[in-house]
Amino acid sequence: MKKILPIFVSLTLLALNANATEVGILDVEKIVKESEAMRDIQAKVSKKQEEYQKEVETKQKSLEDEQKRIEGKKNVLSKEAMDKEVLGFEKKVDDLKTFVDRKQNSLKKASLDSMSKVNDEIKKIIETIAKDKSLDAIIPASQALYYKDQLDISAEVLEKLNKNLKKVKVTFE
Question: Could you tell me if residue 172 is inside a domain?
Answer without folding.
Answer: no
